[in-house]
């Protein structure tokens, strides 16, 4: 077996994985067509529906990381020539733009400075002007720590016959994600953030409206692997073999979802908020400042300015890892070298973790 150190994961993901989720990975591998695995698949879908707060029939874990989930939505729901309105206020909006283009969409971007979010009235005005087929925003921008409000967009998108899509990779399991109530037609996440499961699956959900578009496409879906009508047949339909599901990863997701629902969604969201407030107060007492907009900051991803007296921020992160086994994230894109990204995700959103982070920072950051 490989030799693996114990780490305290407080970067932008992966997050700490509870023992029982790791134990689920080590359960006996059974066949992906075994009736017992089908039962587990059904239970996963039901639990995912609860976590996504949706009744969508097409709710399943896509095999692959969050990026595979993004491509599953784009490849299935964007038809060549579709007008796509995509928000860019960080790295992940840029990636979505690229994916929509590759799927044949004609992309128009809404832009906001990194760290800021889009005013929903402005998004609605842009939708009314452009009448896009697809509108897509990142709910929790992991590169900037910004939380995008989503609750007032659905009606505007739908009155022009479009679909509202959401990246909730970092928010699902740590913040309210109300797919049905907000009128979101397609969303994807990843297992390694607030679901506290290793990376490897991308929970995806599609509304009836999205399924109607998919079922009436004029062109075939470019990707065979991610074609939801084929994958859906395995997960929800006639159970036809499509690809070999990553069986043990699905056991792990099953256990991670069970833990979330046992805790209760609202309790879990409150726990993330408490951990964030505690970290923020510990850090601000020590003179650190936050780089994210205080009105719209994520609890699970703390964007902290690197103190100006530190010349080599990478050396600090290296010492945290080597001397304290603690991982925090660097800034991404425009924020590289300027910020640290401190994650309090899933099982890592606890007071004990907050204290571990500040103790390690105190030890390595010159006072
Ligand atoms: C907001 C967001 N979207 C998409 C992704 C891509 O997910 P993955 O790295 O699991 O492919 C990430 C990963 O950090 C993310 O934070």
From TrEMBL:
<dbReference type="InterPro" id="IPR015421">
    <property type="entry name" value="PyrdxlP-dep_Trfase_major"/>
</dbReference>
<comment type="similarity">
    <text>Belongs to the class-V pyridoxal-phosphate-dependent aminotransferase family.</text>
</comment>
<keyword id="KW-0663">Pyridoxal phosphate</keyword>
<dbReference type="InterPro" id="IPR015424">
    <property type="entry name" value="PyrdxlP-dep_Trfase"/>
</dbReference>
<dbReference type="InterPro" id="IPR015422">
    <property type="entry name" value="PyrdxlP-dep_Trfase_small"/>
</dbReference>
<dbReference type="GO" id="GO:0004760">
    <property type="term" value="F:L-serine-pyruvate transaminase activity"/>
</dbReference>
<feature type="binding site">
    <location>
        <position position="341"/>
    </location>
    <ligand>
        <name>substrate</name>
    </ligand>
</feature>
<protein>
    <submittedName>
        <fullName>Purine catabolism protein PucG</fullName>
        <ecNumber>2.-.-.-</ecNumber>
    </submittedName>
</protein>
<dbReference type="GO" id="GO:0019265">
    <property type="term" value="P:glycine biosynthetic process, by transamination of glyoxylate"/>
</dbReference>
<dbReference type="InterPro" id="IPR024169">
    <property type="entry name" value="SP_NH2Trfase/AEP_transaminase"/>
</dbReference>
<feature type="domain" description="Aminotransferase class V">
    <location>
        <begin position="8"/>
        <end position="331"/>
    </location>
</feature>
<feature type="modified residue" description="N6-(pyridoxal phosphate)lysine">
    <location>
        <position position="193"/>
    </location>
</feature>
<dbReference type="GO" id="GO:0008453">
    <property type="term" value="F:alanine-glyoxylate transaminase activity"/>
</dbReference>
<keyword id="KW-0032">Aminotransferase</keyword>
<keyword id="KW-0808">Transferase</keyword>
<dbReference type="InterPro" id="IPR000192">
    <property type="entry name" value="Aminotrans_V_dom"/>
</dbReference>
<dbReference type="Pfam" id="PF00266">
    <property type="entry name" value="Aminotran_5"/>
</dbReference>
